[in-house]
Amino acid sequence: MSPVSDTEHYVLRLYVTGSTKRSTLAIETVRDICDTYLKNRHDFQVVDLYQNPEAAAREQIVTVPTLIRHQPGPLRRVIGDLSDRTRVLSTLGVRAANE
Amino acid sequence: MSEPVLAANDQQREIDDLKARLAEAEETLQAIRQGEVDAVVVRGAAGPQVYTLHNADHPYRVIIERMQEGALTLTPDGTILFANQHLASFLDLPLPNIVGQKSGDFIAESDRPLFDALLAQDDRDGRRSELSLRSADGLAVPVYLFLADLPDEGQKIVSAIVTDLRWPKQRMRELTEANAMLVKTMAERERAETMLRQALKMEAVGQLTAGIAHDFNNLLMVIGGNMELFLARTSDQWLRRRIEASQRAVDRGARLIGQLLSFSRHQTLQPHAVAVNALLLDFEPLLSSAVGDGIRLKLVLSDRASVCQIDPTELQASILNLVTNAKDAMPQGGLVTIATEDTDVDGQPDSGVGPIIAGRYLSIVVTDTGCGMPPNVRERAFDPFFTTKDVGKGNGLGLSQVYGFMRQSGGHVTIDSAIGTGTSVRLYLPRTTVAADPAVRPAAAYIPRTEPRAQRALVVEDDRDVRELVIEALESFGYVAIAVENGPMALNLLDSGTVVDVVVSDIQMPDGMSGFELARSIRNRLPHQAIVLTSGMTRFAGVPDDAVPDLPILRKPYQCEDLAQAIDAALLAVA
What we know:
The complex is a heterodimer. By secondary structure, chain A is an alpha+beta fold.
C-alpha cells in the first residue's frame, strides 16, 4: 500500500481510446474521485490516443485505459478495470474519509 | 487390435485436433496482431458483443474531426467524455485539458443555468440555444448549441454540436453599421438636396428681380434726373414743392430697387480690405442710437484684428438691419450682443441656406434676447418678401438683402432661433491675409467742386433717355458733351484723334464690350484719361476679374450733383 495523503496536490493523466465504453467509464470514475476526494487539489487531463498516438510510446502505454499518477511521486499506474472505484482509490493512495 | 494401439490412435487424433485448434488460434492472434480484423466478438454479459478496432471506424472519426462544428459527448451531470479538435480551438485550450472536465467550466457564467436546463431536458423539447462559451482567456465566444441523447446500453450519454457564431455575429454587426451609415448618408443627402433646392429657388427669384431692377433703375434715372433739371430752372414755390415730392418718391424707389438688387446678388459692390473690429467700433454709436433707450447694445470683439475683403457700406447696412430686427423682437427691452470671432469651417452648418465652402472666415454674430422664431418662420426668414411684421412696417426684404450680400461677398449667413430663447444671426465673412486698407470710410469723401471750365466729355450709354439726360446734366455743368451708344464707337472716336477731358460710360452695354473693357482699352491708349463708370446693375461677386482697379463706380439712379463730384474726382486722380 502506498503512503496515504490528505493534503497533497495530485497530477493525474488518463490515457483512453476515444469514446469506447471502458474509456468513458474510466473518465467518469476518475472525475468522480477528483470531485469527491481531491477537491481543489488536482490537475486531471485526459489524453485520447486516437488523437495523440505518440503519447502511447512516450509513456509506454501497453493497455488502454491506463491511469498514471504523476504527483505525488513516485509514478504509479493503474490498469485493468478502472470502473472499480475502490481499487483505483487504493492504488492512487487516496484515503476515503469514511473508511 | 491391441488396446495400446487403439489408445495411440485416439491420442493421435486428439493431437491432430489440438494442432488444428492451435493453428486456428494462432491464426486468429496473428490476424489481430497484424490489424487484419475490423472487430472482435466478445462474450458480454448480455450475449455476444462486437468490439470495433481502430481503423474500422476511421471514416467516422475523420468526419467528426473535419466538420466545421465543435462536437462533444457528456454524461448527464456534465462531465466531458469526448471532444473534437474544433471545440478545442473555440476554447483555445488543448484537448487533454477539456476531456474529463466539467462542461460548466467552459460555459460563460451567466449562461450556466440555461445550459444545465438544456442538459436536463430530453429530446422531445427543442434542445438548442444560443449561448456563450468561455475561452481560456475569459472571453465570451458566442455559439449555437444543439444537444441530443446518445443511446448507449442503458447509460445516458448526451452528444452536443457547437456552431461558431462569432463570424455571423461579426457580419451582422458590420451590416448593422453599414445600414446606419446608409441611413445617415441618405439623411445628409436629403438635407443637401433641400438646401440646393432652396438655393436654386433664391437664385431664380434673384435673376428675375435683377432683370426688373436694372430696367427700373434706368427709368428712375430719367425721372429723377429730369426732376433735378426742372428744379434748377424754376423758383416757383408751388412747382418746387411738387418737384421735391417727386424726387423723394424717386429716392424711395431707388432704395427699394437697391434692396431687391442686393437680395438678387446683382448689386454693385465695392469691396475693400476691411479690419472688421475697427469698422464695428466706429459704427457703434450709430447702432446704439438705432437700438433706442430700452435696449442695451454690447460688443464682444475677438482679440485678433482679422481683415476681410468686403464692401464696408453694405456690411454696415446689414448689421444695422440685423440690429433693427433684434430691436423689433424685444418690445419690452433686452440685450443685443454683437460678437466677432475667427471661424474656420470644414463642415456644413445646419441652419443656413445653400452650402458653405470650407475655409477661413470671420464670424459676426448678432444675438438678441427676444421672442425668437418658430421653426416654420426660421426656415423662411431669408425668403424675399417674407415678413412677420404688419403692413407698412416691413417689406420683408431686410434679411434677404443680408443673405444676398453675404453670398455675393463669398460668405454665408445662418440663423439659430427658438421661441422664448431669442435669435442669433451669424455672418460668415471670408478672411483675407491682405493688410487692411488704411482709413476706409464708408461714406464717400466730399470733393469740392472746381470751377466749371469749357471741358469736353464723352458719354457712352446705350439707353437713349438716359443718354440725353446725362448730356443735359453735363451741359448744365458747363461741359461740351459728345455722346455715343457703345464702346466700339467710343474707341473709334478717340482713335480718330478726338480729345476729351473725361469719359462717362455705363458698364452694362450691348455689342460685346462692357464699360470695364472700354475703360481698359482707353487706358491702354491714353493712360491719363479721366474715366467715370456708371452702373444700373452689374453682376459680379467680390472683385470681378475684369474690373479696373481704382475706378470708382457711380450707381444709378444718381443725382446730377453726384455725377459732378465723380467727374471732379476722376479729373483730380489723373491730374
